[in-house]
């Protein structure tokens, strides 16, 4: 009996021992399988202590920012349809977006409210470099002889002051130089500066605003900078807390209203626009209605610079003027936009527009890229129309209220 028990116990011990051995082998085999599989990437990685050192993978790229779809922009209801219009002009209010120059339209993240950043105002002196260069060295002479006078005359003509105005200025200066017994180039420079300020001085250059709705209308040939100037002024006026409506009455070119709408978005203005070929009169009519209905302060009317004929254009502008004039006292400025680089040609254009619509002031653009800044003097002397604001670049902040003293200082100052 004892023997049987001993045999049985021995068998159990042997079985248990086998079991342990088998378990160990299986574990080792599993580990090995895992290691092999890991090398071929088919299993989840083993605990860190078993992994060969690896580099931290780069963080995933940030998720793209949500873009604001056009439909998501807050929109005003469409203005009422007028008889004779193919489609009612649309009135939209658009949220201000950040200014990044005058490039292609961009959309803004929907969830953040973005204020139009205040751009640094450009220094006039820096932007007038090319006209300034025309006068550089003119006043370096120690004696005021005939050569010095010739040089000054030449510089004024080169800067596009125009022959007639230059002749008048030189005659005036000669008389003053003789009376004041001026003998050096340096003294002459002071005299020239005060003469030019005097020539330019005295005009009222303010852009008029009245209580209720004020309208500023912009006229001028294609490409001079009407739409850009409107954008710049819209930014300025919205910044001053005014509610601004842009009237896209240049329906001659397809892109014109799009360009204005883009600026409405950036400046936080409302826009009234129609389709290409729509009646500009109906756009202005609806813009006036929208402005009155919504208690806007200012309507900026963009007009076409070209129609099929010049007569058409002038007649169209007169018509737009009459529509605005139905709101008594609203039309405060008819601003003729002139590209400074066109020099004396700009004067011819100015005469034609001034004859058709009573122009109240000139916006002289692109002074930054031209040596013909002297045209400011010619416009005022020959047309009697004051230059009110000047464009010195393509960005929204590149608009400066024209000040004769600042202008002359920028041309001749050290
Ligand atoms: N350098 C410079 N470019 C300007 C200025 N004003 C407008 N422009 C550019 O002139 C071009 C025509 O302007 P736009 O406003 O479309 O002219 P519009 O046809 O009269 O409306 C655009 O490329 C503007 O960026 C300015 O003061 N300086
Ligand atoms: Mg335009």
The helix-and-strand class reads: alpha/beta
State the end-to-end distance.
128 Å
Number of strands: 9
Low-pLDDT runs: 32-87, 94-117
Q: Identify the overall geometry.
A: flat
Name every ligand kind in the structure: guanosine-5'-diphosphate, magnesium ion
Number of helices: 13
Mean pLDDT comes to: 78
What percentage of amino acids are in beta strands? 5-15%
Cα Rg: 37 Å
Question: Could you characterize what this model shows?
Answer:
The chain is of the alpha/beta class and 414 residues long. The protein is 45% helix and 11% strand. The chain is built from 13 helices and nine strands. The chain has helices spanning 2-40, 124-127, 129-135, 146-158, 163-179, 185-200, 226-239, 254-267, 280-293, 310-325, 344-356, 375-383, 404-412; strands at residues 90-93, 214-219, 244-248, 270-273, 298-302, 331-339, 361-365, 387-391, 399-401. It has a nine-stranded mixed beta sheet with strand order 1-4-3-5-2-6-7-8-9, with helices on both faces. Helix 4 (146-158) runs antiparallel to helix 5 (163-179) and helix 11 (344-356) packs parallel to helix 12. 38% of the residues are buried. Guanosine-5'-diphosphate (GDP) is lined by residues 102, 220, 222-228, 305, 337, 365-366, 368-369, 391-394, 398.
